[in-house]
Please model this.
Amino acid sequence: MGRLQKCCCCASTKTGTLITAVLGIILSIITIVLVWVVNRHEISFRTFIFAEEFDKKLAALDIPRIILTINLCFTILICFLLIVAVHKRRSWLMLPWVVLGIVLAIGLLISVLHTAITYYLDDQDHVILATAILVGGLLYLCLYLYLWAVVFSHYLDVRDEEERGRYTKAPYKR
Model:
């Protein structure tokens, strides 16, 4: 994979990485607030693993909301770790975010496809909604993958710098 030299054609990958980490923190906090503020009947949490009755019992106990909140708290922690890694120039501190980022991208793709297909196959006429979810979700996935590539490029730069040493100038020969 080729490395990106700039983020959005004007900022360094370091700046892009910091912006990505801050965006991750902000979006996670907003999501946590929305998950707990919005009425239960307006958001549907389903596991698709258990029977529908058991899913309803879990939702009544707020188990899916609690699990989502814990996951988002870990995302905030990993984003803070990414900020520290950028300032200290430590590639191994960036690695959790890089791994989490690609796993989340795969999960986002599966979620967008599943939701859109479910609405397309629904008995009611949700074609416009399904198309909006599909197009919007895939555009969001592209943006997310671009930001992941920015962070990954910065990770590779920092890792290479650690391997060869901070200074590339040869010492004076006497």
User: Anything to note?
Assistant: The radius of gyration is 21 Å. The chain has a mean pLDDT of 86.
